[in-house]
Amino acid sequence: MPRPRHCRRVAHLPQVTFYKPQGVPLSILQHIALTVDELEAIRLADLQGLYQEQAAEQMNISRQTFGRIIESAHKKIADALVNGKALKIEGGVYTMAEVRKFKCYACNYVWEIPYGTGRPQECPQCKNTNIHRAEDDRGYARRGGHGFGRGRCGRF
Ligand SMILES: [Zn+2]
Predict the structure, then answer these.
(1) Is the pTM of this model over 0.70?
(2) Separation of CA 95 and ligand 1 centre (Å)
(3) 1 CA to middle of ligand 1, Å?
(4) Do 39 and 112 reside in the same domain of the chain?
């Protein structure tokens, strides 16, 4: 039996999941599938500029695994840019980072922020500072892959 793949922790889901080169007819357009965990590796290392050790820690994986993920991601993106292919972001082995839920006692607005980002100072809706952890917040982890193809994380 193959060893179960370790769950990769992802804190950011993409707003846009499909990129298509302009002027290439759909009939000859090739697709590259970039996984959600590969995009997260790009976000942490290339956009936030984290060292691979730090980025691996955030995703809850080894540095070796992180190195493989980001190498694969770079190769796919390069292939898309150089060869004019479409890029689709979907699937992957991941779980969403755990979130904390807060509630504003002034306007009843409820919102979530990932762990490790610090306590919010004010309500994003009405700017009131009378905010507390929401009662139903138990630090749950959301199911991986929601809305992005099948997440195949073994934890669930
Ligand atoms: Zn409020």
Answers:
(1) no
(2) 29
(3) 51
(4) no
